[in-house]
Design a protein that fits this description.
mainly alpha; Lipopolysaccharide assembly protein A domain-containing protein; 80 residues; 4 strands; 75% helix; 2 helices; 10% strand
Length: 80
């Protein structure tokens, strides 16, 4: 059973890697993003999207840990 699980995980990661690679190769047009008064240098669209993906993958779980920690704190305080 462990072997099947590992194979599924590896195949899933390979599919994700191929999809990201295809996205990067298809989105090479140069753009500049501006927000409020800040602007970036001209870079391919794929750079911005992949950076946003990575940041979301990092920030999402961190927010989940913070929210879960606050819930535990509220629950433990209410029982005191």
């Amino acid at each position: 059973m462990r072997g099947v699980k590992r194979v599924v995980i590896v195949l899933t990661l390979l599919v994700v890697a191929v999809v990201v690679l295809g996205f990067v190769l298809e989105n090479q047009q140069e753009v500049s993003l501006s927000f409020l008064s800040f602007a970036t240098a001209q870079m391919p669209v794929s750079v911005f999207v992949v950076v946003a993906l990575i940041l979301g993958m990092l920030v999402g779980p961190l927010l989940g840990v913070v929210v879960r920690g606050r819930r535990r704190g509220v629950v433990s305080k209410s029982h005191d």
